[in-house]
């Protein structure tokens, strides 16, 4: 078993020292095909945390943002007649539950982890404080940013872009269930073509739905590159940290 608390020397393979990884809440449900799945699957949490622990052991500084769609999705609640602000607040609380599940899974492996939340709940997690988050990462702790931005009407994709820029992440990573960004839904169209590189402008002009347009616009304004890749391919997170060109890179026209 890896000793995650051992001294963390600089690893020659590390190309991206600090990343912000965005996970959807649905990834915690597992990959079953027996219809809609909800909640948190312990085996899936263990698998994801094991891979994160291996990347952490290489010396990478990790920040995570996770959604809450496996428990409650604010947009769905609003569509069914709920007040949008109340529905979004419920969705934010769902992300805190997922963050605590990931923290538990990582710490069971010996990976030091902190949950910071944009909604004050002192008995459960730290408040989000930018400088403290950066210090945690510098000390080798994985930081999980929960409760989105703390405001309704903003997605966790936007929260991930915001946190990535605030803590000085070199790359924003969006882990999905497909290999990258396609011109059509690859789950419905077997001949769909995957983009290796994609400009911010084309992503926004083509209204590609893999990521919230507000998040991509924010990244475009601050030249933060985004890599979209398949979470379910073993070792992909490590490949991203090692600088391998997997998935789709969204960035400026260069």
How would the blueprint of this fold be written?
Elements: E1 18-23, H1 42-57, E2 61-66, H2 74-79, H3 84-108, E3 113-117, E4 126-127, H4 130-138, E5 142-146, H5 156-166, E6 171-176, E7 181-182, E8 194-195, E9 197-199, H6 200-205, H7 213-222, E10 226-230, H8 236-241, E11 248-251
Parallel strand pairs: 1-2, 1-6, 2-5, 3-4, 3-5, 6-10, 9-11
Antiparallel strand pairs: 7-8, 10-11
Helix pairs in contact: 1-3, 5-7
Brief sketch in words of this structure:
This protein is of the alpha/beta class and 254 residues long. Helix content is 35%, strand content 18%.
Which descriptors apply to this entry?
single chain; 254 residues; Carbamate kinase; 8 helices
